[in-house]
């Protein structure tokens, strides 16, 4: 069984390492310094696992059985175009944000949606920190394949479950990210501050309210305010992924998180002013208004 990790950054390196440890044939598709490091020094894993792996790392996709897509959401279209040139049975996104599976479904027959709460950070090229064990939910988005991905992940010791409502789960995770990520990124605070600082909680509640209304119009009854509060408290010391991106001067996934709620709200003709403001503020920082 050959498994390809398309976008061997933090999350892809972690999942690839877990699969390698279980004995799978894993190919890492990477670029830049990460590609050079993987090719010359291999992959170092620290944190919840301490191990070094010699790896196969390439700059262009190759034929494989299964593909995990772990690029940032804004790179999905480009990655899909590269993957169109090779053969594989099914592709599974483990990304955050909404819309990745729709992009993949325009290119491929068997698309599996994924949501994971595992945590990984790149300390330096070729060195990933396994920061947190979580849960991974998978579901067929188009065609089939979820059970194949479930099987390999389970064999690799990953907590995984196949669900029937993967689209809902993807939107649910996006709700949490929509509330926590932009506020932490704009105010440069850890997740816990969102509930500790009344002014920030006031904004968080308003974003959550808009997300809840969008979800409700989609037929999903979700108490977004409560869910976001729970996660912010549980992860109070975390620096959100969006805050980390901003701190590193990198592009964020805001268009695929709050931007997705703004677009859905427009479709339904409802208000999403707070989400829209967060998109614009984060874009402003990305563009260098900082
Ligand atoms: N890290 C985590 O703990 C979690 C992350 N996620 C989600 O997973 C996704 C990936 O996150 P993360 O791993 O943190 O991000 P990273 O930026 O660390 O990893 C993405 C990697 O993909 C590379 N890449 C992008 N396009 C290509 C390409 N065409 N060919 C080869 N390499 C490519 C990037 O290179 P470059 O750096 O040059 O852009 C980067 O190394 C995101 O959607 C994120 O929200 C979800 C749950 C947890
Ligand atoms: C849940 C949360 C907010 C944890 O930090 C996250 O997923 C992120 O940072 O992107």
TrEMBL record:
**Listed EC numbers:** 1.1.1.169
Q: In what pathway does it function?
A: Cofactor biosynthesis; coenzyme A biosynthesis
Q: Report the InterPro entries cross-referenced here.
A: 6-PGluconate_DH-like_C_sf, 6PGD_dom2, ApbA, Ketopantoate_reductase, KPA_reductase, KPR_N, NAD(P)-bd_dom_sf
Which GO biological process annotations does it have? coenzyme A biosynthetic process; pantothenate biosynthetic process
Q: Which residues form the Ketopantoate reductase N-terminal domain?
A: 3-142
Q: Which reaction does it catalyse?
A: (R)-pantoate + NADP(+) = 2-dehydropantoate + NADPH + H(+); (R)-pantoate + NAD(+) = 2-dehydropantoate + NADH + H(+)
Q: So what does this one do?
A: Catalyzes the NADPH-dependent reduction of ketopantoate into pantoic acid. Catalyzes the NAD(P)H-dependent reduction of ketopantoate into pantoic acid.
Q: Per its record, how is this protein called by name?
A: 2-dehydropantoate 2-reductase
Q: Which organism is it from?
A: Geoglobus ahangari
């Amino acid at each position: 069984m050959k498994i390809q990790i398309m976008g061997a950054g933090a999350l892809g390196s972690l999942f690839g390492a877990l699969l390698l440890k279980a004995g799978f044939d894993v190919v890492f598709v990477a670029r830049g310094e990460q590609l050079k490091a993987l090719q010359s020094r291999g992959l170092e894993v620290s944190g919840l696992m301490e191990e070094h792996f010699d790896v196969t790392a390439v700059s262009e996709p190759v034929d494989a059985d299964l593909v995990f897509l772990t690029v940032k959401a804004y790179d999905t279209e480009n990655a899909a175009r590269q993957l169109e040139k090779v053969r594989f049975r099914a592709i599974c996104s483990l990304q955050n944000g909404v819309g990745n599976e729709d992009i993949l479904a325009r290119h491929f027959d068997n698309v599996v949606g994924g949501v994971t709460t595992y945590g990984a950070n790149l300390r330096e090229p070729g060195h990933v920190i396994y920061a947190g064990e979580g849960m991974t939910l998978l579901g067929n988005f188009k065609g089939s394949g979820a059970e194949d991905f479930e099987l390999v992940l389970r064999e690799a010791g990953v907590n995984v479950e196949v669900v029937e409502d993967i689209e809902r789960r993807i939107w649910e995770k996006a709700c949490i990210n929509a509330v926590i990520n932009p506020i932490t990124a704009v105010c440069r605070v850890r997740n816990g501050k969102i509930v500790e600082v009344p002014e920030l909680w006031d904004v968080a509640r308003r974003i959550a309210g808009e997300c809840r209304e969008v979800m409700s119009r989609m037929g999903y009854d979700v108490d977004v305010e409560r869910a976001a509060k729970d996660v912010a408290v549980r992860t109070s010391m975390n620096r959100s992924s969006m805050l980390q991106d901003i701190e590193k001067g990198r592009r964020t996934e805001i268009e695929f998180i709050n931007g997705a709620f703004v677009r859905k709200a427009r479709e339904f003709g409802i208000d999403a002013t707070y989400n829209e403001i967060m998109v614009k503020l984060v874009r402003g920082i990305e563009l260098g208004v900082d």
